[in-house]
Amino acid sequence: MRVERVDAVTPAHVAAISRFLPQLHADARQLSLAQLHEVVSAPGTTLLVARDATGDVVGMLTLVVYPTPSKLLSLIEDVVVDKPSRGQGFGEALVAEALRLAGDLGASQTDLLSHDRRAAAIRLYQRAGFERFETNVFRYVHRPGK
Fold first, then answer.
1. Helix, strand, coil: what percent of the chain each, to 5?
2. Nearest 5°: phi and psi at 135?
3. How many angstroms separate the CA atoms of 104 and 99, rounded?
4. Residue 35: is it exposed, middle or buried by C-beta count within 10 angstroms (0-12/13-18/19+)?
5. Residue 44 burial (CB count, 10 A)
6. CB–CB of 18/30 below 8 Å?
7. Which domains occur in the chain, in start order?
8. pLDDT band at 142; cut points 50, 70, 90
9. CA dihedral defined by 114, 120, 123, 127, rounded to 10 degrees?
10. CB contact at 8 A, 62 and 47
11. What's the pLDDT tens digit per position in 106-132?
């Protein structure tokens, strides 16, 4: 098992990630090479992938590190491991590497959101040291044409 940062996007990355995204979000977009390149080249954004012993991409995570006037923050998004590869430590390895990178960059905290229905993911985050933080989350959904 290894976790690596994606610096140069390949069609194999797009194929693997396109397979994972519907496992994460029922309404996941179809991902193109150009869109994935945009993610990888965005300032402060790191795309990590996990590879199994054969070299196949079996999981991913997006880390975003960003400055605010008060501190440097980080956010973990899109953590997903392909169903056949779950329970083998890939998710833990991805989260550990993201936390290491965020800390090395000077982030004072790392946040992530997870739905209550993702019990296994919540257990993973708690094992990694995340604590449930009571807050009000407000979201505005942008709808084209409105």
1. 35, 25, 40
2. -155, 165
3. 8
4. middle
5. 13
6. yes
7. 2-127 (3.40.630.30)
8. confident
9. -110
10. yes
11. 999 999 988 888 888 899 999 999 999
Please state, in angstroms and rounded to a whole number, the distance separating the CA atoms of residues 66 and 45: 9
Residues composing the chain: 146
Give the Cα separation of 61 and 43 in Å (integer).
16
Per-residue model confidence (pLDDT) at position 133: 85
Q: Are the C-beta atoms of 76 and 111 separated by less than 8 Å? A: yes
Q: What pLDDT score was predicted for residue 77?
A: 95
pLDDT of residue 146: 67
Q: What is the percentage of the chain residues whose pLDDT exceeds 90?
A: 75
Q: In angstroms, what CA-CA distances link 30 with 46, 47, 85, 92, 94?
A: 20, 17, 22, 26, 23
